[in-house]
Amino acid sequence: MKEDFFIKIETWHKPDMGTQENVHCLDPNVWKTVEVVHIDIADRSQVEPSDYKADEDPAIFQSFRTKRGPLGPNWKKELANSENCPRMCAYKLVTIKFRWWGLQNKVESFIQKQEKRIFTNFHRQLFCWIDKWIDLTMEDIRRMEDETQKELEAVRVLILFLYCVFHGRFGGEFSAHFVVLEKRTFSVYRHLLRQPPHPFFHLPGVYRALNSYL
């Protein structure tokens, strides 16, 4: 199963307003198949109602230390016209491979939607948490990157697990094999269930599904 399912996320950070094309230098034929999704962290309509938090809304937040924010509806145009204001766009290329007859398109589409949701919420939080990270050292950042990588791997496994549970695709040898191999990963989420729920866990039935299989 490992060879037939993977998620790869590649990121380029560029000092621009997101106007460059094909920054990952994909083959032209591959680039034609890529769906480009623009994320505006100040646009509340891009946020799921269950994910919204007023204290993580760039449209109303202002940094105490840097005085940045709030971001108005025309913040991108204003930033583009300000030569002295730094800017950075994160270009993220998400590649998904899921080879399972009858489920491939549905699972890939499901994961793409969840990735957009994660990116949107994370970068909204990142802007609103600026007073907490503005003084971080490179060592602090590297440590956080390592922790994040482990969490992302757990999310990769959990997404597939939940999809299979919700669509009745778990059963037989695959179910037993999957749960045994990923027991350590699921243990992380068993612990997280005791904490305030992450937005991802607002999906219907997720608590019941996890408790049934863990």
From TrEMBL:
It catalyses: an N-(acyl)-sphingosylphosphocholine(in) = an N-(acyl)-sphingosylphosphocholine(out); a 1,2-diacyl-sn-glycero-3-phospho-(1D-myo-inositol)(in) = a 1,2-diacyl-sn-glycero-3-phospho-(1D-myo-inositol)(out); a 1,2-diacyl-sn-glycero-3-phosphocholine(in) = a 1,2-diacyl-sn-glycero-3-phosphocholine(out). InterPro entries: PI_transfer, PI_transfer_N, START-like_dom_sf. It is found in: Endoplasmic reticulum membrane; Golgi apparatus membrane. The keyword Coiled coil does not apply. It holds the Pfam family IP_trans. One of its GO terms (molecular function) is phosphatidylcholine transporter activity. SUPFAM superfamilies: Bet v1-like. Residues 1-150 form the Phosphatidylinositol transfer protein N-terminal domain. It comes from the Eukaryota. Its main location: endoplasmic reticulum. One of its GO terms (cellular component) is endoplasmic reticulum membrane. The keyword Transport applies. Keywords: Acetylation, Endoplasmic reticulum, Golgi apparatus, Lipid transport, Lipid-binding, Membrane, Transport. Belongs to the PtdIns transfer protein family. PI transfer class I subfamily. This is Phosphatidylinositol transfer protein beta isoform.
